[in-house]
Design a protein that fits this description.
By secondary structure, the protein is of the alpha+beta class. The protein has two domains: 198 residues, Ubiquitin-like (UB roll); 196 residues, Alpha-D-Glucose-1,6-Bisphosphate, Chain A, domain 4 (2-Layer Sandwich). It is 32% helix and 24% strand. The strands form two sheets. Strands 6, 7, 8, 9, 10, 11, 12 and 13 form an eight-stranded mixed beta sheet that branches. Strands 2-1-5-3-4 form a five-stranded mixed beta sheet, covered by helices on one side. Helix 2 crosses helix 5 and helix 9 crosses helix 10. The longest helix has 24 residues. It is elongated. Bound molecules: FE2/S2 (inorganic) cluster (2 copies). One FE2/S2 (inorganic) cluster binds next to loops.
């Protein structure tokens, strides 16, 4: 049996459960919340859809233990919810149900769509609701009901919440975000000991010295300070970390080892990597190597990385060319953002931000963080847009060149 603590419909609940128990069974049999219906038990019909950390999930294919520390809201917890009330009335008015078996899941999915969209047309509603099957009524009344609620809210000038409450990458239930800004009156769950333990364990992943990166590429930049000064600065781990937006250190670094975290913001989602690195430096050649491993606990992604640097004197010996070789391997959910072309483009802009900050710091000026997101993360969204814009520029110039 595994102990879990979570919040269900605003009430803290602790229980000892079998790890194999799925969330729907736990709610129906353990908590008597039978408004969560079970149809296929294969994640296909949507009858069991509920909210975990504000996001609709299939409770029949979600293990209850994976929701330790999460906030769970079932159809019973949406009694007083404004959007659900409007949807219930619309479903009645538009004859959107007969037996009602699919209705709790339909309402939860429809609520999510209404919250996120101000202008969804019939096609968009059909696509958004395609994971909820109704076996007796048909869909015309259901679509009409949802459409009428969206239109009524638009007429009342109620803004949509872009992205709903999706703030983090990763499976629902794994992030336990703050409830700030939510419409639901659920209380924040207590920090999950399970998740804390998992985060701590993952941040201690071993650094494998024999590992070879999947992708390797080079970057270069020049700073207007002599190599000796840049070399000394590279030896001050705290100063270097301060030049990389979104980075913070955990504990006191030594010249050989550092532990820290970095936040990357991509649109409405934020991924936070936490890990450790080993540092090697060779003063005779002004070169060094940093090998690290980190994990983003919410998305179950792991990255191993290596940065080699070499400081070369500029032509006037008063400037330094910093030559970097960067290698990485990214696994897990975030690997979808890890295509080499995208990562290299983002790395080029991160390197540029780092170089600017490094130069400012060497000159004793405050460090500017132009790429910081609102919450102190590297805003890879804006970096990615500039990468895409750069690609378009390249493509356009190639076409012009080809035509000429
Ligand atoms: Fe969960 Fe069908 S019962 S998707
Ligand atoms: Fe009967 Fe949808 S109303 S399955």
């Amino acid at each position: 049996m595994t102990p879990i603590t979570l919040v269900i419909n605003g009430k803290p609940v602790s229980a000892n459960i079998e790890p194999r128990t799925h969330l729907a069974d736990f709610l129906r049999e353990g908590r008597d919340l039978t408004g969560t219906h079970l149809g296929c038990e294969h994640g296909v019909c949507g009858a069991c859809t509920i909210l975990v950390d504000g996001i609709p999930v299939r409770s029949c294919i979600t293990y209850a233990v994976s929701c330790d520390g999460a906030e769970v809201v079932t159809i019973e917890g949406l009694d007083e919810d404004e959007i659900t009330r409007e949807l219930r009335e619309a479903f009645k008015r538009e004859h959107a149900l007969q037996c009602g078996y699919c209705t709790p899941g339909m309402l939860v999915s429809a609520r999510d769509l209404v919250m996120r969209s101000r202008n969804a047309d019939e096609r968009e509603i059909r696509v958004a609701m395609s994971g909820n099957l109704c076996r007796c009524t048909g869909y015309v009344g259901i679509i009409r009901a949802i459409r009428s609620v969206i239109a009524a809210r638009r007429d009342r000038d109620i803004a949509a919440i872009v992205g709903g409450v999706r703030r983090t990458v990763g499976p629902a239930g794994s992030g336990h975000p703050s409830t700030q800004g939510r419409e639901l009156s659920v209380r924040r769950a207590v920090p999950s000991p399970l998740t804390e333990r998992a985060a701590a364990a993952q941040s201690k992943l071993p650094i494998d010295r024999d590992w070879s990166p999947q992708v390797v590429f080079d970057q270069k930049f020049v700073v207007n300070y002599p190599p000796q000064q840049v070399w000394e600065m590279f030896g001050r781990v705290r100063d270097v970390a301060a030049c990389l937006p979104g980075t913070s250190l955990i504990g006191e670094p030594t010249p050989e080892r550092v532990e820290g975290q970095i936040q990357v913001k991509i649109g409405p989602i934020t991924a936070e990597f936490r890990g450790q690195a080993e540092i090697e430096r060779d003063e005779s050649s002004y070169s060094g190597k940093i090998r690290g491993v980190g994990s983003a606990i919410r998305s179950n992604s792991v990255t191993r990385g290596m940065i080699s640097y070499h400081l070369l004197p500029g032509p006037d010996r008063q400037s330094t060319e910093v030559a970097l070789t960067i290698g990485y391997t990214l696994t897990g959910l975030l690997a979808q953002f890890g295509r080499p072309s995208i990562v290299q483009g983002v790395a080029a802009r991160m390197t540029a931000a780092f170089a600017n900050n490094l130069e400012a710091r060497l000159g004793g000026e405050p460090v500017a963080s132009p790429s910081l997101g609102a919450e102190g993360a590297i805003n890879a969204g804006s970096l990615l847009s500039s990468v895409v814009a750069g690609r378009f520029r390249q493509l356009f110039s190639r076409i012009v060149h080809w035509r000429n």
